[in-house]
Amino acid sequence: MHKTMMGIVTLALLAPSFLPGSGIEAQAVPTFEIEVEGGVVGQSRNDVQIPNDASGTRFSLADLAGKGPWPAARLYLTWNLNARHGVRALLAPLSIEEMGTLDGPVGFAGEMFQVGTPVEATYQFNSWRLSYRYRFLERQDLDLWVGFTGKLRDAKVALRQENTYSEDTDLGFVPLLHLAADWRVSEDGRLLFDFDGLAGGPGRAFDSSVKFGYDLGDRWRFTVGYRTLEGGADVDSVYNFAWLHYGVASLVLRL
After folding, report:
1. pLDDT cut 90: percent of the chain above it
2. H-run or E-run covering 62
């Protein structure tokens, strides 16, 4: 799946650069941008086994907790140091809590959970990121960025069944590649692409979005689109791969 996603990333970034310029007047780069994004999220996959050995049972958290949708939100804060260099912070909390029943006995993080009694499932995947990005292409109708992102992952999976409770938490740093594109398709309309991701070793992480933006004057912009978050890890202590899908809208203030 990750090879397909990387192909989409490459196509989304490179295809517009081969198109002729539109003659649209270029805009000045704002010093600061604040973007508040909200929407709904669902999961098509969320497989868990903790620990990743014979004492743990692999089960589907998507089957146990359901596929959603649930509310989701994130906040971007961007500081453009000049026309080429910028930094961006992201606050993206995500927490899901649902009741469900298991298809069979599950060994999870040192405890056993049985069939027939409801289980409360918690899935938390908070993401705090800081990115540096360089605008390597600046045209009247197209801007392209490349950079790197430092991600602090604050994750938790927990199960509760009557008096039995067990959880696994993970707080760790993940380096990611950052890519972005802003393709102006009309005087006020634009196609926006954003990607943080990397694959290698026992895991991978991809967070990408495609949104249509409409400028509401010089300072405000409204966007709507699709975001997908996919990845996980396969190590001795944990197996967890999830694929999340978002329908999002955002409001951007440029200063």
Report:
1. 85
2. helix 61-65
Instruction: Quote the pLDDT of residue 151.
Output: 97
Q: What is the CATH number of the domain that holds 64?
A: 2.40.128.90
Could you list the residue range(s) of the whole structural domain that residue 58 is in? 2-254
Positive/negative CA dihedral, 98, 46, 42, 62: negative
Q: What is the pTM of this model?
A: 0.87
- 9: pLDDT strictly greater than 60: no
Dist CA 243 CA 229 (whole Å): 6
**Within 13 Å, how many C-alpha atoms sit on residue 120's CB side?**
9
Q: What is the pLDDT of residues 22-71, one digit of tens each?
A: 445 556 789 999 999 999 999 999 999 999 999 999 999 999 999 999 99
pLDDT of 170 > 70? The answer is yes
C-beta atoms surrounding 233 within 10 Å:
20
Give the CB-side neighbour count of residue 16, counting CA atoms within 13 A.
Answer: 24
pLDDT band at residue 171 using 50, 70 and 90 as cut-offs: very high
Distance linking the first and last C-alpha atoms of the chain: 39
What pLDDT shows up at residue 43?
97
Pairwise CA distance, residues 92 & 90, whole Å: 6
Q: Considering its fold, how many domains does the chain have in total?
A: 1
> Which of 39, 44, 33, 123 has its CA nearest to residue 74?
39
Q: How far is CA 128 from the centre of its chain?
A: 11
Counting other chains too, the contacts that 101-106 makes at CB distance below 8 Å and 24 or more residues apart are 101/64, 102/59, 102/64, 103/59, 103/63, 104/57, 104/59, 105/57, 106/57, 106/59, 106/159
**Under 8 Å between Cβ of 224 and 21:** no
Which element (helix H / strand E) includes 13?
helix 2-14
